Amino acid sequence: MPPGAHLRIQLPADPAHWEPVTGRACRPTGAAGLLPLRARVTALSSSRLPNEGRIDGFSTLEVFDYRVEGIGPAAICLRAAPARTPRGHRTAR
Length: 93
Hints:
Layout: E1 5-13, E2 17-21, E3 40-50, E4 60-69, E5 77-81
Antiparallel strand pairs: 1-4, 2-5, 3-4
């Protein structure tokens, strides 16, 4: 990717939810010879889009925008999280 590239990731959401993973839990893999060179990934924003007519079973898309700087491998990690419980509702234990 060129320096300063804008990268957008869209994932199906509701009832699913996605959470960014950072730090040591999110590292590039492979290309061992390139690991001393690392690109930097900066989260810019997150938002939601309607999912009407796109992916069955999901009501929205979660959108994550990033900027990538530098040369070398980079990792962007997003973890699926349990569906959110509406306010005022309790989950069974």
